[in-house]
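Interim report, section 4.2 (structural modelling).
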Amino acid sequence: MKKVTSRAFAALLLAGLILLGMAVYLIRLVRDGGDWASFYANDSVYTNGVIDRGTVTDRNGVLLAFSGREAFGYAEDYSVRVSCLHVVGDMSGSIGTGALTAFRSKLVGYSLLTGTTGSGGTVRLSIDSALNVTAYNALAGRNGTVLVYDYETGQILCMTSSVSYDPNVGFDVSDSTYDGAFINRAISSSFVPGSVFKLVTLAAAIENIPDLWSQTFTCQGTYDVDGKTITCTGVHGSLTVEEALAHSCNCAFAQIALQLGGDLIAEYAEKYGLTETHDLNGIETAAGSVDSAGSDRANVAWEGIGQYNDLVVPYSLLRLMGAIANGGVVKEPSLLYGKSGGTERIMSQSTAEALSDMMSYNVEYNYGAGNYPGLEMHAKTGTAEFGDGTSHAWFAGFITNPDAPLAFVVLVEHGGGGYAVASPIANTVLQQAVFG
Amino acid sequence: MELTELLFGEYAGLLANVSRYIAPLLALLIVVRCVRSMLRERYEPETWAYLYLPGEVMVPLRHWECIVGKAKSTDACITHDSIDKLHACLIRDAAGGWTVYNLGRGETQVNGRTVAEGGLPLADADVLTLGDVPARFVDLTEEERASLLKYRHRPGRLVRPAGTLLLLTVFQLLLALQQLTYNPDADLLCAMGFAALAVLQWVYFAVLRTSGQRGFEPELLAFFLSTVGFSVAVSSVPGAVLKQLVFLAAGVGLFLFFGIWMRDLRRMKSMRLPALVAALVFLALNLVLARVTYGAQNWVEIGGFTFQPSEFVKILYIYAGAATLDRLFVNRNLFFFIGFSAACVGALALMNDFGTALVFFVTFLVISFMRSGSFATVFLAISAAALGVFLVLTVKPYVIARFATWGHVWEDVYNKGYQQARAMSAAASGGFFGHGAGNGWFVDIVAADTDMVFGVVCEELGLITGLSCVASILALAAFVVRNASSGRSSYFVIAACGAVTMMMTQLALNVFGTMDILPFTGVTFPFVSRGGSSLISCWALLAFIKGSDLRANASFAVKRPEKFSGGAGVEEVPDAFPDGPYDIGGPDTGGYVPTDGPDGIDWQREDPPEATR
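Predicted structure of the assembly:
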């Protein structure tokens, strides 16, 4: 009998496995319960597939979207609706990265204890809808994106994406001008970076070419690499590295890129988070790419200049600007008001300071401080040549005004020159952000 | 809604809302009370007879089935070269008669007669020769019997079952209120269904209480689970409540029948072969007549009445699979059992009922391990099963599809992960307390009220109720294992472990399949899933679990005391050995070593049984 009774514990083994399984379930419930409960099929919070509770506001409490069993709607003001569309998202979930989709579990009022048996919740975004309106208007109908964030607190103040549409009206899908209207260009698209990428090449050079500061680079308008020609925007003559950046001289950066090699540049792009995806409050951003493996030296030169296969997501560039401003430490951006992300050091303080000084020098020496009244501007332009002869206009950088530690990225697709097109937009938006 | 408004006016909604929070807490309280009551009774070993070895070393026999041998795991361990590891088996029947069986290669004699295959009866003062060691068998005296009986009749430490039953009644009332408030299809009949449920359990309680029973925890847990299941049925098909009640009553009836049947172990044993044949006939019938439902060919329709034969085979399988100790150590019996099991599992696999086949297989593993104690046998069975699973997987595309979906349901919420994604969503949406009985949407999804019922329970009645249901089954398992330590016959212990294993496996496959922790196999949650065959079979299986309960006045396995004691004056008899023989022996002593040769034995019957304390 003793034999049999002691073997009865075999049944307890199964009970142990069940307890283990229940523990797995509970852990998953704690971790993912909000996502499960905000799944569109949950009829207790969705009516006909549309979320039927919750409110989205901007940082100042301006209503951006609301939803109820009887009705739902967006911001009252047309400009707010259009300029904030991609951040807020739409009720049908077409804009997958919008707050209405990404922060569903907050909107449905989910908590572990009450599930969705309570009432809906409010999502207060970090963005300033008025700033978004200004930025969207400054894009003036051209496709592109404007991003501004506080690199000390991580709060994203401005995130607008064009082409956009009025969610109350929708758009004609056969109209090709609306191609990609569901995509938030700030976080979900990658673009050829052009000269803004020279900051990455430069950072790699600062840390890997010991005599960088004593080198002089010669620009005769073109530079020959193994029989292929690197073209420059002008004939810059003899240049120090500071002058090379201020003039955004392709010939000088081709030489620097060749000294570094393509792999090292790609390594820095990865280290600075340009080729990785990021987690923005649970929203997965797109990844860029920088790669010239197996290609010839001319393409390595172009890689260092921000052309060839280089692709960068505006959001990733914004993080990098924040890191340079912050002495090499990224404060992770956040779209939720008052919610702070983590920090991560991605470059040494000395490299960050050197880059910062040179970006300030760009303004002083070339862009003109008078173009940015009252702003302690540090920036880099980019005019990224696109295959069809047009160029993306970039302007990326940060200001160090003591009460406005803001980093920014402006991109105008096929907009032309970075200095001529993107820089004024940045100034307009920052003037409002700093001085109201 | 109209009805509750009529009753409670404007407070109807508020009342239902408040009851939403109370009901899950009641569920928890009911389970906690049952668990406390089941597990706090202390078990003292009982002694049923003695063996006196040379040198007047006394070995108590503490079960109705005892093994004597050299191995430390035996009940009476005697270390002597002439004795086999498992030498002999002594079995007591309900009437008090003992039989000895020879297990090993060595010889066993009773008063000089060699014990053959059929065993030999053993009476008081008989000389039992094990190998070269002579032992004297001493049955209990009348005083000892009476004392044992008296001991068994001490007041127990049960948590008052009537209180728990009252809580359960309130629970049922609240669920009825919620159904009427939230479920637009729930009518007066549904409310009366809950009332009928309450009446059924009170009648059951009254009848058994009147006959002197006091321990009701397994039944209370089953009534609790059946109540949750009834609420699911009302949410799912409000028109079918009457049918559900009939099934429940039939289940309780079958439970009682088995309970009474089980009191006579000999009768029980005699029907093992017919049960085995019946199981195979059921399965064969199923294979011939069944129609395909949700990919599994496991429903049979006879005269407009549909049922699942495999559910009834579960009962027969346990009935035929459990065995008494004398049969356990004969390999022929074990191989016969393995063959029977293979036939059952194979037939279920042929029916595409992969989930139930798995339930049988796990139960087989536990029973065969309990019977053989040999990991080698179990591993052999596992490798055979692995081969079988491989064959099933290569042959049955829908099984492969389910395995492929496993762990990826959220990647395919429109097709393969459709049900499970919804189940998880519904369960999470219920939070701790749920949306209220009848206030869920998940129940309308195909098979939600059966194979994914855990999702419905969590959505409507909350995580607390869901976990309480799981805890109920685990409590039954703990109860069975605890009872095993004082089990009298291995038949009851094995049957109870088998039954509880079946329930636990079903629970695991149901809950974890629904929640994407295991591949989805479509198995019912014991007592809770809607469906007649499954409910009836669960109640019948509960009889095996109840059968392991040996507490005074709580047991099926033990007959009522007046019949058992033979009318001896219980009150007048003093305790013959209050703590007496309970401390001797056990594995620590390393066995009883005969100190003298056969010649030095004192055969005097009148020796007091205390010397070896």
